[in-house]
Amino acid sequence: MSHLKSWAKDGLTVLINDHSPYIDVIAKYNYREFKLLLEYSHDSAFIEDIQGNNYDSGLQGKGIGSLLVNTAIQVLRKKLPIDSLISGQMSDVGDPIESVLLKRCQQHRSAFWASFGFNIQPGMAGHEKIRALLSDLKVKENGLTLDKFPRFIPLSDFVEQE
């Protein structure tokens, strides 16, 4: 059974689709869709992907990824024990081929995940693993998404959908 919650303001819609054992956090704006996909169990979660805001989108650094991760952390705190392991693997799909730009994207991605409290585990460049206990993760309550929307939306502001 799927549970769907939504928040909308001035053309931005954020959806939380909990269809156990998966959770999708989706942001829609100007006919574009951005997704954070994760799979969870009773004591862990694996972040499968963030889609839609890669290098070619021109939207890296605009707060979309932070909005998605902030929302996912809040949902996981409601569903899982605080000592649950949250993990994932970074991906350089969609990054530029040119080495200087590629390196910059990889550094940006590592800094992005670390800013939420994830530890970056060494691995093949562009595909490092991320790990943290749920208790060590932090949401970024300040800042804007797309220069006008909050980067942090409390779960209490989401409305149950039928």
Proportion of beta-strand residues: 35-45%
Overall radius of gyration? 15 Å
Q: Outline, from the CA principal axes?
A: globular
* Named CATH topology: Aminopeptidase
Q: Tell me the major beta sheet.
A: 9 strands, mixed
Count of individual beta strands = 11
Helix content: 10-25%
Q: What structural class do you assign from the helix and strand content?
A: alpha+beta
Total of domains = 1
CATH architecture annotation name: 3-Layer(aba) Sandwich
Q: What is the CATH class name?
A: Alpha Beta
Average pLDDT for all residues: 92
What does this structure look like?
- This protein starts with a strand and ends with a strand.
- The model has no long low-confidence stretch (mean pLDDT 92).
- It is of the alpha+beta class.
- The protein has two helices and eleven strands.
- It has one domain (3-157): Gcn5-related N-acetyltransferase (GNAT) (Aminopeptidase, 3-Layer(aba) Sandwich).
- The longest helix is centred in the middle third of the chain and has 16 residues, at 64-79.
- The strands form two sheets. It has a nine-stranded mixed β-sheet. Strands 9-10 form a two-stranded antiparallel ribbon.
- Helix content is 20%, strand content 37%.
- The protein is globular.
- A hairpin with a 3-residue loop joins strand 9 (144-145) and strand 10.
